[in-house]
């Protein structure tokens, strides 16, 4: 009996479409969220994450429709977020069918948002998302899609988030995101060692070996990737079979 | 057969309803005690806080009707917090009284393991049972919880291990419960719900 390491595809959603782009530029259409969700559910994804990357507030209602549509297609858990600024925003995505809500920028600005969400929905429903960039021997937290420095140390912020009730941490390496050079295992190992909750690593995934590394020396409980799955460059079932052969506990669909 | 799903004001009802819908089973949300006596099978779903669950039941006057149905041997399936609510109390809210069908306290997961216990894990069967019938021994189920009940006789049918061997599946008379979320556990989870429905019919 072992807790399996999770493989989590991430769907960045803009105006009811899954898109790929770096820092909101050069958005490329990657398909229909419900169709992709169905495919990943079938291919053995352990979970999904759905992020609203629409800049405007008008996009909120459209995103909730997408959350609702995706929920109908899944019999695995999924997290939704992006632009969650209040308890009501969190409630809306959970009501629409998400199992967990993720917060990022607003949590830095008003850390009590984490406590409020955890008190209302339970820690298991609150994922603290953080974007970290190397600064000397440490890592600094950035907000607003990685565009704004906060001066906050990543380890200290992760620990504060957990103390406030976050049940999981979704950690993105800004240095590795979009580079296809592998996860930042040093960063994930440092944060994983500093907190008592599961850690989802994100940023830089390309090869099967990258996942093996992040579960091994990176100490991650779960690993997230987007474009390599959307583009069918890597298949989730092949990845999980590879990991199983390497002795990593994973849930194999049959 | 229509499944009565107890709506105590929180909890993720739609995903449980959808899972039964996909099995072709009708469900009904129960918010008043008058709906309970006609129920042929009852599901106690749950996410969130132990106190929210028991006070939610109390505020809707559902507790006594639920006890009466359980006493008259209506099949019941507890899910996650719905399993924990069957116990006498929980460390999560020590002052609150649970349904006390099992006279034991639910404990916090120990400090030496990650908590919440979130993700896919396997279970070990202590004896043959109904819910896990025709499901592979090494199947994975999705767990998301910070509290758990130690294995207890004669209720526990399967355990999972995270810090200590805790009750993952309960089967005793008309009481059934799972600590994981079958509605979120892929095909293996669907099979659990199907086994419950077939047994309850």
Report what the structure shows.
- The complex is a heterodimer of chains A (254) and B (201).
- Chain A is of the alpha/beta class and 254 residues long.
- Helices cover 36% and strands 28% of the residues of chain A.
- Chain A has one domain (6-245): TIM Barrel.
- The longest helix of chain A is centred in the N-terminal third of the chain and has 15 residues, at 59-73.
- With 201 residues, chain B is an alpha/beta fold.
- Chain B has a single domain, classed as Class I glutamine amidotransferase (GATase) domain (Rossmann fold).
- Chain B is 24% helix and 30% strand.
- The mean pLDDT of chain B is 95.
Span from first to last CA of chain B? 7 Å
Strand arrangement, largest sheet of chain A?
1-4-5-6-7-10-11-12
CATH superfamily descriptor of chain B: Class I glutamine amidotransferase (GATase) domain
What is the helix/strand order of chain B? EHEEHHEHEEEEEEEEEH
Q: Can you count the beta strands of chain B?
A: 13
**General shape of chain B:** globular
Mean pLDDT over all positions of chain B: 95
Shape of chain A: globular
pLDDT < 50 runs, ≥5 residues of chain B: none
Number of domains of chain B: 1
Task: Indicate the CATH topology of chain B.
Answer: Rossmann fold
Radius of gyration of chain B: 15 Å
Largest pleated sheet of chain B? 8 strands, mixed
CATH architecture of chain A: Alpha-Beta Barrel
Oligomer: heterodimer
